[in-house]
Amino acid sequence: MRQSQLFTKIERNAPKDEATVNAQLLARAGFVSKLMSGVYSYLPLGLRTLNKIENIVREEMDAVGGQEISMPMIHPKANWMTTGGWDKIDVLFKVKSRTEKDYALGQSEEEVVTPLVMKYVNTYKDLPKAVYQINWKFRDELRSKSGLLRGVEFLMKDMYSFHETQEDFEKYFAEVKKAYFKIFDRLGLVAKATEASGGAFTQKISYEFMVLTDAGEDDILYCDACEFCVNAEIAKEKEGDKCTRCGGKGTLAKAKASEVGNVFDLGQKFAKDFDVTFADKEGKKQYPIMGCYGIGISRLMGVIVEKYHDEGGILWPESVAPFTVHLLALGAADGSKAYESLQKAGVQVLYDDRDVTPGAKFAEADLIGIPWRIVVSQKLQADGGDNVELKKRSEKEAKIIPLDEALKAIKARH
Ligand code: ATP
Ligand code: MG
């Protein structure tokens, strides 16, 4: 894409009403624009990154047998009365029509998916099943001051699984947990799985996946020697305690974290609420065991920025960068030949063909944070060769090399 065609522009100053790094950098670099607290437009660069995160999640959910669907975002009140959510869920948005009918906006969709999937499940032979969607959710959050980390409207992947037995559910649950670690790894993030809130009070298994960041809204305690990790809010442990999980090898440290996903054992609650059953091997009616698996896609975009930035701007991991290469043509130099070669080689390029100073181009490239920078200038071209300057956003050193060698280096890495 030619940068001269991009309708967004870089903003020199951070918006005054944004307190977090992710919101400031994403707004300045033209990835998002705030409509109101907790509600953002995703602009061309931002939507490319959001789609890439979404696609990584999609690939891994498909790999564990999830079937993608899209469910409505506006629901009849009746479904939420059936589960008690209408009165119990404080963040539920309620909408009235002009004929005085009540609706809820989706904040999680057990109320829709349970009767939907069970419509097609008659016997144990129809189980297990897992369906998911990647859709916008609405929550009447009280505090949405953390940029993309807490939206009133936000993008979530929500998967729901249906099982004949507890054993089958637990087997699948473990598989999805593994897929989650793979997703966070592909996004360049290290997540810790906390044995989640509720764990202390119920027998149900659930995990919250936490990424350590000061912008996060959760406090966690984690062992510096083993996997043990809990949400500090409910924990009986405290900072500095010897870890009981690994027999005191490690000590518990406290940190701020952001919950990027979670997996829950829903038991038979929703199936019982909707009275949806299947016939077991003896022909007896049974309620399925359900699991639910959430990932905050738009929150992840914010968390990635919180983890990957420096004083100059964002440093996107290659897997989610809006483009792989930022091509800068300085002064009167023509970058179109390099632009075409890169495109022909299947590399995603943002080509800065604007008539602005080299200094502005360099600063803006750093702010946007595309992983590879290629510079063409008259000085480089004067040598007669095909030389360009190649630099990684994450490194200080630049190399002067022929374009085809630069291409090889980039292709080898992604
Ligand atoms: P939190 O404790 O942060 O409010 P939650 O427990 O309410 O999260 P879930 O209802 O389980 O979260 O939603 C699944 C996932 O959706 C979360 O793990 C998180 O990544 C994301 N998420 C939840 N609320 C928001 C929000 N307001 N904005 C952005 N992402 C969110
Ligand atoms: Mg919440």
- Fraction in helix: 25-40%
Alpha-beta classification: alpha+beta
Main β-sheet, in a few words? 9 strands, mixed
Number of strands: 23
Question: What is the typical, i.e. mean, pLDDT?
Answer: 95
Uncertain runs with pLDDT below 50, 5 residues or more?
none
Count of discrete domains: 2
First and last CA, distance: 19 Å
Cα gyration radius (Å)? 25 Å
Bound molecules: adenosine-5'-triphosphate, magnesium ion
CATH classification, class level of the largest domain: Alpha Beta
Work out the strand percent: 25-35%
Number of helices: 12
Under CATH, the topology of the largest domain can be stated as BirA Bifunctional Protein, domain 2
Shape: elongated
Q: What is the annotated CATH architecture of the largest domain?
A: 2-Layer Sandwich
CATH superfamily of the largest domain: Bira Bifunctional Protein, Domain 2
Key features of this structure:
binds magnesium ion, 29% strand, elongated, 29% helix, Rossmann fold, single chain, 414 residues, alpha+beta, binds adenosine-5'-triphosphate, nine-stranded mixed sheet
